[in-house]
Amino acid sequence: MLFMSMSIIGLSILSIIALLSDSEKRQQVNKELFFGYFFLFFLVVFSGVNSSNSGEWMHQIQMKLAFLALPLTFFTFQEHFKTYSVHYLSIFIGVTSLSLLPVIQFCIENPQETIKKISKGQIVPTPIDHLKYSLSLCLAAVSAMFIYLKKASPWKTIPKLCYLIIALFLIFGLHLLAVRSGLVLVYLGLLLLLLNHLSTSSHKLRYKGYILCLIALPFVAYVSVPNFKKKIQYSLFDFNRYLNGNGKNYSDSERLYGYSAALDLIKEHPILGTGIGDLRGEIINKYKTKFDFELDKYPHNQYLFYLAGTGIVGLLVFLCILILPMWYLSFKQHFYFFLIQILFLTSFLVENVIERSYGAVLFLMISLLAIQFSKLLEERKAQLQSETSH
User: Fold this and answer.
1) Does this model's pTM top 0.70?
2) Is residue 130 domain-shared with residue 190, that is, in the same domain?
3) Other beta carbons less than 10 A from residue 216's beta carbon
């Protein structure tokens, strides 16, 4: 995390120097695609108006510094990031794939321990928080499949088939980890990707076959992957405990308790919320008074987080920030960006992704790279059409 923070600071300094020394950069168009994310930082800053816990408020501001630094960097060096967007995405895919190797090794060497952990709602050891890690695996898998289908490999020495193999490897890893949010997202991403290609490709029968295989995959995984099967069984058991009022210390039940506590806070502070700085303390108190147990966790929902912390006003600002780049881009011409955004927006329903430094950087890096990669593909398409017409 220290290396990540130092890198962001370094990029910010380089960006500011480049902007000050080159007036043409300051006149570049489409600033909204990059600087819209700035407002999320200022939303957190302004939430301090009704936050009495200044320490927690400053901590939240510190974690949102990436929303100042990374959009500025991508705006300043947008030609560079556009040209090498697929290279950076390929590096992300490669590093994520390599990180999965020790996780799979642990599962293979300790099969009984792995199944025991999952059957009790515990997690397999992962390099970072398992929810963020499963999201990374999902984004890498969908991106690899997209590059494979678009034949957009940046290196001639790496066949496009490698991206398909890596995508399948990552999907296998997701089933082995059995993190439900990651699995739902990867199925959603692949389904949208295949439907998009079905609508634009002349090989419709082939893509219909791919979609049928994708639909059958969860059923095959349930029968053939013990980890996945145990996770489904545990989820049903956990939900039953919650319905019977005995869900304390169970992961899924704690999520539902968090949603309930957040909704109560929203009713009490509907317009401006509790203030980001006070949200943690308020949610802990709500757990104690309503459910009679101690739990130090934000609600696992990004929308509820901002609705409870900044009220209806803050949630509307947050939604505008997310929608702004999509407003300026075409769904058909920039499908990859929309695909990535749909995955993030869906993940926000079950996890407060950007409330940790890694999650914030992951969201910004992949979203901003997706904008540039979509632009690169559109330019290549236009160039190819121009060459064909001549």
Assistant:
1) yes
2) yes
3) 10
